[in-house]
Amino acid sequence: MKLFFVKPGFKDGLAIQWGVSAGKYDAAERIVISNPIFFYGLSGRTKLLVDRGQASYMRKYKRKAEGHAPFSPANRKGFFLCAGATRGKRLFDCPVLTVRYFFDAIDVEYAGEVCFREIEV
Ligand SMILES: Cc1cc2nc3c(=O)[nH]c(=O)nc-3n(C[C@H](O)[C@H](O)[C@H](O)COP(=O)(O)O)c2cc1C
Predict the structure, then answer these.
(1) Who lines ligand 1 at CB under 6 A?
(2) Which domains does the chain have, with CATH numbers?
(3) What is the reported pTM?
(4) Phi, psi at 119, each rounded to 5°
């Protein structure tokens, strides 16, 4: 797969690889998702990871009235790296939004992105 990782060397850094459970990224303080553009979106593998965030989303937004506390550790941050082959003006619009909402669901602050067009030129 392309990269899913929490950059090694960060405090409590934790490699996130294909097949890892959502519980592992829950514990990470920093999450870096690296993704190739597939049809103007996330690759299927990245999307599978993102979709695991639905349980966290439900907990965060649907059970707020029950006193949900933010996930720990606090001050979690996430960064997004993305690359595509073409130079489409809106190439990164969809994946950036998806990753932003994923990070929000798991109480990770979106710290930014670096996106590369024409990666194969
Ligand atoms: C199934 C598939 C769909 C792709 N769709 C797009 C696309 O919509 N726009 C684009 O710019 N590149 C597209 N690409 C190109 C990939 O983004 C590009 O090959 C990738 O970022 C290069 O990374 P890699 O060398 O690690 O595979 C697609 C590639 C594949 C295999």
Answers:
(1) 2, 36-40, 83-86, 91, 119-120
(2) 4-116 (3.40.50.360)
(3) 0.83
(4) -65, -25
